[in-house]
Amino acid sequence: MKHFAKLAAGLFVAASFMATAASAQTVLRSSDTHPDGYPTVEAVKYFGELVKERTAGRYAVDVYHSAQLGEEKDTIEQVRSGVIELNRVSMAPFNGTVKESIVPALPYLFRSEEHMHKVMDGAIGDQIKKAFEGAGLVVLAYYDAGSRSFYNKQKPINSVADMKGLKFRVIQSDIFVDMVAALGANATPMPYGEVYSSIETGVIDGAENNFPSYDTAKHFEVAKNFSLDEHTILPEVFVMNKAAFDKLTPEDQEIFKQAAKDSVAKQRELWAAKVSESRAKVEAAGAKITTPDKQGFIDAMKPVYEKHVTDPVLKKMVEDVQAVQ
């Protein structure tokens, strides 16, 4: 009997320990406006799997895709205030909060996605990461968002003259508003989720984005003319609330940073495949893709740079970006 009592007591202690360990798991919430299966959503899921594995289940990540927690403007405030811990969001909405984020958002700054990777993976990317800490955020990773181009329901765009008078939805960013104005068009900042109906009803003529967003948001159904001007090659940021990050042990901080770094390679691979798939899909559905002469668009950006790149730090950063080969 004593043997069975000891065994039962041992099982009770083990069960209690397991229950305590299970209850000690910290579940972190992460937001994304894109649908399930989108490359950024899958990359954050992968990050969560690595974190869970490498912390022996002490941390887990729940990914809320499809703007379940709100549009980007809302979730940025949520992650800064600590309501949620993680967020995948475009860098442009931070332009008014983190001045260094202005540089990657500048139109026609990056020559290619490869150029952007070299810049963001190096010292300039580290400089921008450091600046985000002042906004209460830790940048864990930069994700690809490809190149953004204009699309509309009215006509093909082959030159700056074709932009005149058209109304485009843009990200809630002064740079994007000024970029569109410099091209002779009208900018309307609005949440991503409102774009389809706004084009359909004529509130706007079109928007600007990459092929996967043009596809997955079904904007190609209401705006058939896609102009491959590639005005921005703007990276996304995967951020964490700084207070939450600072609570991690140094060992766990390294686990989080390495898991995020590993997720970047995964996201880039998924992104490249998605771009090819989405372009083929929209073309098959009747989207008309044109490639305008970019020089006229680039020349029109002089007042945008003069307005937004006045700080000596930003001027130096732009020069450094352009010098990266």
Largest sheet, if any?
5 strands, mixed
- Count of the separate structural domains: 2
CATH architecture of the largest domain: 3-Layer(aba) Sandwich
Shape: globular
How many helical stretches? 14
Quick one: CATH superfamily of the largest domain? Bacterial extracellular solute-binding protein, family 7
GO biological process, one term: transmembrane transport
GO molecular function, one term: carbohydrate binding
Pfam family, one: DctP
Signal peptide: 1-21
Q: Can you give a write-up of this model?
A:
- It comes from Sinorhizobium saheli.
- It holds the Pfam family DctP.
- Residues 1-21 form the signal peptide.
- One of its GO terms (biological process) is transmembrane transport.
- The protein has 325 residues and is an alpha/beta fold.
- It folds into 2 domains: 20-144 and 235-273, Bacterial extracellular solute-binding protein, family 7 (D-Maltodextrin-Binding Protein, domain 2), CATH 3.40.190.170; 148-233 and 279-323, Bacterial extracellular solute-binding protein, family 7 (D-Maltodextrin-Binding Protein, domain 2), CATH 3.40.190.170.
- It is built from 14 helices and 11 strands.
- It has a 5-stranded mixed sheet, with helices on both faces. A 4-stranded mixed sheet has the order 8-5-9-11. A two-stranded parallel ribbon has the order 6-7.
- The protein starts with a helix and ends with a helix.
